[in-house]
Amino acid sequence: MRILVLGFTGYLGGHVVEHLRALPGARVFGGGRSPDAVINCAGSTDGDPVTLAEVNSRGPAVLCAALREAAPSARLVHLGSAAEYGPGTPDTRVTEASATRPVTPYCATKLAGTVTVTTSGLDAAVLRVGNPVGPGAPPTGLPGRIAGLLRAAGPDPDAVIRLGDLSAYRDFVDVRDVARAAVLAATSPGPLPHVLNIGGGRAVPVRELVRTLARTAGFRGRIEEDGGGSARSGAVSWQCSDIAAAGDSLDWRPSYALEESLAALWAATSVRPEGGRAP
Questions:
Q1: What is the domain range of residue 163?
Q2: Core-most of 11, 136, 172, 199, by most CB within 10 Å?
Q3: Predicted TM-score of the model (pTM)
Q4: Which among 11, 85, 106, 256 is annotated as catalytic?
């Protein structure tokens, strides 16, 4: 089976390729081949609205047009975002049938990409991914940024890490579980629903994630909240996905507990004595 992975050098794409290479009979390409399946991991979480639209909205449109011409029978798996749903209701999980109410350019551009893929007429499925966490998390996301701050602070008991408001709830999912879901969706023999939620299925206080990672790191200083925070996530105080459909369609469920994901993230950021980084 020939599988083309777009965005394979990125955080999610790198883990997807790692899972695919362990799949018997799979041939993984970064471009230039006629594929049996395409996994689109390309996307942007940062940038001005024009940049976000170019990557998150126009990118999937160009891809769909190219596939209609070159490989109309290929399975397309596109990584969307749970942020497309917008603000959630406390104690309520969103299903794939829930209304979408994007509140930022990032959310809106990701939703536009999803609409393009699901209405393209291709054999396509969108995985609406929660907040990915785990080894290799980039500093542009909260878990990776916190890990970097903890690494810089070291064991100093007088260290102070100042963060924004940590009162929000998020649905964290291990990046390796996301990669496994993408591989299952790309190789599933039957038709799939147009949209599937991929998350941990649990709303976790962001404050809990930060404190757990701090304990994992052996941090002895103080963490202070100043009330500020990310404009991209600040408008959404609660986020949790119903992941039952992914279980029914892909026989997929998350396999890593949050503590395991954070331990793997911390281990991956460890600095070797000679100055290199852990694998």
A1: 2-268
A2: 199
A3: 0.89
A4: 106
